[in-house]
């Protein structure tokens, strides 16, 4: 099945699939096409750079709500299933992870879209399961208001359970396709879900067979209590915001503890923090690149972008260059954990509104420097065991990703930290995750074993 499980733990790398990079004004960079968000050639170039660098996957974030105040990247961009399918046709090993909402779509539709992507890509699909945290998204899907935070995660839990059930509709060897005998399929190996739950009623089966990796990889990005709990129960990978050791360690231990409580192994979930590396021949050159790209950002645009994480709270009522006042629990029903993180950052560092907005819009962490410095910082955190890899959010595309692949990846490879070539043709295999046995095949095998013991 192409499991390709690694004998020695290796660093995993991914990159966000966004036309502009992490800078919301990246379209102004001379090396980035101005229409990068809808430029398929640019997306294909990014994918090919990532695959040349032996990256595990692309991570396509998404949202379904815009306003006149939205930043340029959000105003016009591809829907995930469409662009990832296009990229599947021009890549061979690179994983393709897309964001699909559990709040404003049907489980059968999502299961079918992702299973189709998984099959046509030869087992390289992944699902970033999100609950959607913007009020405007609800109004775009016939809802008056956003569901309460806890309710969204209850819905998500049942939704993911259904999708996984639908992905088991067919056992691995169900499709015989024997031309000589005329048997196309073994219908005894087709299974109807017949789910009737609190929020959904789904009959099944799904009308597409399993892929070489069994089913798509499930990612989760929630950092709240409910989000962490859902990830620990259902996810194969989790997106993290923590790149400093202590918070990264605490997050990892919490996720692993929850996973074990659900009967899983600590190694069943991979943790991927996001970083924005900027590489220069010297630290000064890398800092200069950061400063230059930051100049493209208009402060009003930065504040508007930040407000998305707080249900579009009106931050412009506060002075730009004075510390932010105590803001209580704003954002509690939106991007809850992200909002809490930014408010804590503002309080701990006594940041002004301007400073916080620029920090949010153009992160500056420990991954700006020479290739060796960037590689050192990545290796240092990875070898503590609290993260399994990183999702890159290049400051601009394609320059930022290309610099990393050409200058940092060879160092990590020479040190034996990162692969020299792919271990597998599937995303699951390259991530070193075990193959998910079909539940019906497993039940049949267990029944057979029990019968043998009783005989």
From TrEMBL:
- UniProt keyword annotation of Oxidoreductase present: yes
Keyword Oxidoreductase among UniProt keywords: yes
List the Gene Ontology MF annotations in alphabetical order. Answer: monooxygenase activity; oxidoreductase activity, acting on paired donors, with incorporation or reduction of molecular oxygen
Q: Which Pfam families match?
A: Bac_luciferase (PF00296)
Keyword set, alphabetical order: Flavoprotein, FMN, Monooxygenase, Oxidoreductase
Q: What's this protein's family per the entry?
A: Belongs to the NtaA/SnaA/DszA monooxygenase family.
Instruction: Please identify the protein, giving its name as recorded.
Output: LLM class flavin-dependent oxidoreductase
